[in-house]
Design goal:
It is a single chain. The protein is α/β, with parallel strands linked by helices and 335 residues long. The protein has a domain at 2-175 and 206-232 and 300-315: NAD(P)-binding Rossmann-like Domain (Rossmann fold, 3-Layer(aba) Sandwich). The chain is built from twelve helices and 15 strands. The strands form five sheets. Strands 3-2-1-4-5-7-12 form a seven-stranded parallel β-sheet, sandwiched between helices. Strands 6-15 form a two-stranded parallel ribbon. Helix 1 (11-22) crosses helix 7 and helix 4 (87-107) runs parallel beside helix 5 (143-157). The radius of gyration is 20 Å and the shape is globular. It starts with a strand and ends with a helix. The relative contact order is 0.13. The model has no long low-confidence stretch (mean pLDDT 95).
């Protein structure tokens, strides 16, 4: 299969690229820079010089758009991710490019469009300990997630012609090569701000990047237009039991970290966020309602639909993923 991929030089997109190439597909991956092109080439992909923003410009028909007429499928994994910022920032950087790419793919009669969304579309107003695709999403408590949901909804509402759209919703992505999200935890520990909420007993759910990549390969061939699936490692566990060994792969010890009751942390997070917004802070405060939702509330994603409709089964366990990360860190130290 010939595939056009966005985000191929990033953490999630890179894993998707390596899996697709490993499965024998020809992957054309959008590259915004020479560095991105080198990363794509190293992974076996064919770099396509350009930027998604090219499509959003008035009358924008970039030269690279012609590749859409030559591929069987588009996998859109590129996204600007941050835990702070206005909805408009994410509309401009995520929604508008995604919508333009989808419309271009439909116009080019691409057979399949796989959108990587986020399980956090339901993190916020929805307090259910377990959710599935039929659960109400409520209103997410960060702009990134609100706009992710809006992107899903707008794409699904557009005429799709011969193009089938499948949406994949992974929660917290982790694995070898992760940087941004894990670094946030590390910075918090090093600054002396890290504490568990309720002793880290609340259930969290997550998705190894290789399991996400596996779900993408399945979505290329399975599922009707409009299918939306949560995808996880199928192994939720208390926050302390997941993040303690995860951070240990980076030499960070949180086994003796303190704890704050949710009853104290939640109102404090609300006040800190309100104060930060009032002064138009460019960065998030140390504690936010999103952190409370993630670490201070039970949340498991039911992946029955992915198992039934995609034939999905996790291909890597939590233990194997942690072992790989630990070995990678050891090799870097020895080098």
């Amino acid at each position: 299969m010939r595939i056009f991929l966005t985000g191929g030089s990033g953490f999630a997109g890179g894993a998707i690229l390596r899996r697709l190439v490993g499965d024998g597909h020809t992957v054309h991956a959008l590259a915004r820079s020479a560095t991105a092109a080198d990363a794509i080439t190293s992974a076996g992909g064919l770099p396509v010089s350009g930027d998604l923003s090219d499509l959003v410009e008035p009358g924008g028909r970039p030269a690279w758009q012609q590749i859409l007429g030559e591929v069987d499928a588009v996998v859109h994994s590129a996204a600007f991710m941050a835990f702070w910022g206005s909805d408009q920032v994410f509309v401009d950087r995520n929604l508008l490019p995604a919508r333009a790419l989808y419309q271009a793919a439909v116009d080019a009669r691409v057979k399949r469009f796989v959108l990587v969304s986020a399980a956090s579309v339901s993190t916020g107003a929805n307090h259910d300990p377990t959710v599935d695709e039929d659960s109400g999403t409520g209103k997410a408590n960060i702009a990134y997630s609100r706009v992710k949901l809006r992107t899903e909804q707008e794409l699904l509402a557009l005429p799709h012609g011969n193009t089938s759209l499948v949406v994949i919703r992974p929660p917290f992505l982790w694995g070898q090569g992760m940087t941004h999200t894990l670094q946030g935890f590390i910075d918090s520990v090093e600054a002396g701000r890290f504490s568990w909420i309720d002793g880290g007993r609340h259930m969290v759910d997550f998705c190894h990047v290789d399991n996400l990549a596996h779900s993408i390969t399945l979505a290329l061939d399975h599922g009707d237009h409009g299918l939306v699936c949560y995808v996880t490692d199928g192994s939720p566990r208390p926050a302390r039991e997941f993040f303690t060994p995860l951070l240990a792969t980076r030499g960070v010890d949180v086994s003796a970290a303190g704890s704050v009751p949710r009853a104290v942390a939640a109102p404090l997070a609300t006040l800190m966020q309100a104060a930060a917004k009032a002064r138009r802070s460019a960065t998030a405060p140390p504690l936010t309602p999103w952190i409370i939702s993630f670490m201070g509330r039970d949340r498991v994603y039911d992946i029955t639909r992915a198992r039934v409709r995609l034939g999905y089964r996790p291909v890597i366990t939590v233990e194997e993923g942690l072992r790989q990360m630990a070995q990678s860190a050891q090799r870097k130290e020895a080098a």
